[in-house]
């Protein structure tokens, strides 16, 4: 485990665990992996066929990303992966506040949501320095978990696209409710909703105005589904970047392939995980550039297949659309940076993105398992540390620290 979070209301401490060791391990694995991959890149560029083998939440502040909701029963429809993804997300139930507040991973969900808020806030602010009216594409919008973030950013127009038609309907419904309940003086962005497999269909063919230009494309917890094949990953990228204005941004979150492979190779089996998540690969030691499938199991229920996104390849592919990588940061790096800001800290607290340790009299910790809060216990015993602390259980942190954030900019 490479780092655990502590946040005191006034002071934030990020305790880095054996970072140096992890960095060394990572470098050596990256080098090994890169060696086998660079040669595979050309071949993979040419093949377009899919590689088939391969504590009580009191208020709602932000949306709730679907990937951290309780998924439905295991799906085995025998359909292609895109269809499986749509069926899976369509079947996800909107769960109420009470049910959500009972979730073992409530704080991790809130934490991830806060991470997205911080990223979206940063980029909207950047664009607003240059432009008054901001147009956004939410690629893989789900049920509209980020609508409130766009509202907070005072954007002008939002296009929401997703493969799952029921999710798109629920997103539209959520938007309509938001508009209806808003103050008459508040100018809420206009919105358009599109159902499309964005890894196989051209989005601009489905837009009301095919010449519409975007300032931001946000792709949160989505892009990895398209890495099933080169043609799908390229189409998703095209949809994300083709209609961006020069100086516009393509932002998102996706699992960090290095981290996944590192954990897999450290494990004795084809899988790794803990009491909240499990990742299972089809095989070990062979990581094709596309179609490198794994199952991500959260809270004990199998999810739809996902695919490794080899980041250097992603960066290369983005150049075709005149995109330059601004940064790629692990969740840990991004958190460390964003938590320095007073407003972000206050937002994290309001969103209950960290769990209070020790729990106050009315609440229990998210887990009773031994070792889940050892890091917090140790920290709490350190002299001069003010209690309570804010943290995540060890298992939640291991699950969330799989992800990374990226920002690309469109060149002129
Ligand atoms: C983990 S959810 C994230 C939803 C939302 N972005 C959020 O952060 O709350 C992944 C979403 O990606 C969508 N998705 C997956 N593959 C897609 C594709 N090929 N085209 C469009 N949407 C896709 C799914 O339907 C699902 O809504």
UniProtKB/TrEMBL annotation:
The keyword Transferase applies. Residues 43-56 have a biased composition (Low complexity). Residues 43-82, 359-379 are annotated as: Disordered. Keywords: Methyltransferase, mRNA capping, mRNA processing, Nucleus, RNA-binding, S-adenosyl-L-methionine, Transferase. GO terms for cellular component: nucleus. Residues 61-82, 360-379 have a biased composition (Basic and acidic residues). InterPro entries: mRNA_G-N7_MeTrfase_dom (IPR004971), mRNA_G-N7_MeTrfase_euk (IPR016899), RG7MT1 (IPR039753), SAM-dependent_MTases_sf (IPR029063). Residues 103-411 form the MRNA cap 0 methyltransferase domain. Its EC number is 2.1.1.56. S-adenosyl-L-methionine binds at residues 116, 140, 162, 197, 220, 225. It holds the Pfam family mRNA_G-N7_MeTrfase. The keyword Membrane does not apply. Belongs to the class I-like SAM-binding methyltransferase superfamily. mRNA cap 0 methyltransferase family. This is mRNA cap guanine-N(7) methyltransferase. It comes from Pygocentrus nattereri (Red-bellied piranha).
């Amino acid at each position: 485990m490479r780092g655990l979070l502590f946040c005191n209301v006034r002071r934030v401490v990020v305790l880095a665990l054996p970072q140096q060791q992890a960095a060394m391990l990572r470098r050596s694995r990256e080098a090994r992996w890169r060696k086998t991959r660079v040669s595979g890149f050309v071949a993979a560029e040419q093949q377009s066929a899919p590689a088939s083998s391969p504590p009580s939440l009191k208020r709602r502040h932000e949306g709730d990303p679907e990937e951290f909701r309780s998924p439905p029963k295991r799906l085995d429809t025998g359909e292609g992966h895109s269809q499986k993804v749509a069926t899976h997300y369509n079947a996800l139930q909107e769960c109420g506040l009470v049910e959500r507040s009972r979730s073992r991973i409530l704080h991790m969900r809130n934490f991830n949501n806060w991470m997205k808020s911080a990223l979206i806030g940063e980029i909207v602010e950047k664009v607003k320095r240059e432009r008054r009216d901001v147009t956004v594409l939410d690629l893989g919008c789900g049920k509209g978990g980020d609508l409130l973030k766009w509202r907070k950013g005072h954007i002008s127009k939002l296009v929401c696209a997703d493969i799952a038609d029921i999710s798109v309907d629920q997103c539209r419904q959520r938007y309509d409710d938001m508009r209806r309940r808003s103050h008459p003086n508040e100018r809420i962005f206009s919105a358009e909703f599109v159902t499309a497999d964005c890894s196989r269909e051209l989005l601009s063919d489905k837009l009301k105005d095919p010449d519409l230009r975007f300032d931001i494309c946000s792709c949160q917890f989505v892009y990895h589904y398209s890495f099933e094949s080169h043609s799908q990953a390229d189409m998703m990228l095209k949809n994300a970047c083709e209609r961006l204005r020069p100086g516009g941004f393509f932002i998102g979150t996706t699992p960090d392939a290095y981290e996944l492979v590192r954990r897999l190779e450290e494990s004795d089996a084809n899988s790794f995980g803990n009491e909240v998540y499990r990742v299972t690969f089809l095989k070990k030691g062979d990581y094709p550039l596309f179609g490198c499938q794994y199952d991500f199991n959260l809270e004990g229920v199998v999810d739809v297949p996902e695919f490794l996104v080899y980041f250097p390849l992603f960066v290369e592919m983005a150049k075709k659309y005149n995109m330059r990588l601004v940064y790629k940061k692990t969740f840990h790096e991004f958190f460390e940076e964003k938590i320095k800001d007073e407003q972000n800290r206050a937002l994290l607290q309001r969103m209950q993105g960290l769990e209070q340790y020790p729990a106050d009299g009315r609440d229990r910790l998210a887990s009773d398992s031994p070792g889940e809060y050892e890091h917090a216990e140790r920290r709490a015993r350190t002299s001069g540390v003010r209690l309570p602390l804010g943290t995540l259980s060890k298992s939640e942190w291991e699950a969330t620290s799989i992800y990374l954030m990226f920002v690309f900019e469109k060149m002129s």
